[in-house]
Structures are given as structure tokens and as C-alpha cells.
Amino acid sequence: MTLIEILLIAVALSMDAFVASIIKGMTNTGKSSSSDIFVAFMFGLFQAIMPMLGYFLGEKVSQAVSAFDHYIAFILLSFIGVGMILDYFDKKKEYDETMFTDIKSILLCAIATSIDAFTVGVTLSCLNAEIINSSLIIGTTTFVISFLGTRLGKRMNNKFGKTASLIGGIILISLGTKILIEHLAT
What we know:
By secondary structure, the chain is an all-alpha fold. It has helices at 3-27, 34-64, 69-89, 103-112, 115-126, 131-153, 163-185. It has one domain (3-185).
């Protein structure tokens, strides 16, 4: 995978954390940057760890399914993308503004927003991508986007946070389609 493809995956994966960090920014009444940095760090850390876990578990699986890896990549990325798009259109789903009251809730949210990164790690394994660099790029991108999200959240209201899910979903589906088309064309 190219650097641009990894960056696109990183941006798409960080959309859930971006939405959550906007809520964090909206609920943080203080002007302290240290809590914003902590939230961004936790999101980035888990987004970096989860693809590695998926990759190493997926490495065993990828040897058996290398003939179908492009289909697997397409299905997994599309599945995650569709889920993100459905979240955007789910009128009943609201983000809980009290989810950042303590460290435990921040950790749980960081884990929850990084679960899809585990699946992407399995996909990266099937594609024989370089996992250390990919995970560092994903984690760093999520850190930056989450930090910006907390800052942005201080300036906006709750209506706009879910749009990030739609954008992330579209990016993941597009990337999965690109991988499928490239492999079918060869």
C-alpha cells in the first residue's frame, strides 16, 4: 500500500475519534489544553495498537486466503464504511455528552472508537502492508485529528459532529473498491 492509501485509511479510521473529541471539546468548560492532549493521545494510542493486533492475528489467516485477499479487503473496508454511514443517518443515535467525565470513560471511548482499526489490521495483513509504519501513521493521524476535534468542539455545537462518520464511511468504501478493482484488473 502507498503512503497516500495509508493516510486515507488513517483519516477514515480517525473519524469516530474526531466525533468523540468534538463532544469532549464541547463538554470541556475549561481552557486547559492538557485534557485535550490526553484525549487525543488515548485515541491515537489505541488506533495505533489495534491494527497491529489485527495484523498479527490476521497474518496466520492471510497465508490461507491469499487468493481471496482483495475480496476480504473490499468486504471488511466496505462493512466498516457502511456502518459509519448508517451511524450518520441514524436519527436516534446521539453522542452522550457525559462520556468524558473521568479517565475510565475516556479509555472506554478510545477502545470503542478503535475497534474498526483491528479489522483494518487484518486487511493490512492480507495485503502484506508494513504494519509498524502503518500503525504509527494511523496513531499519529488520529492524535492530530482528535486534538483538532477537541479544539473545534469548543467552537461548534453538537449538530455537526456526525458528518465525520459519513465522510469516513465514504473514504473506506472507496478505498475498498479501489483495492478490489486493482486486483481484479491484474
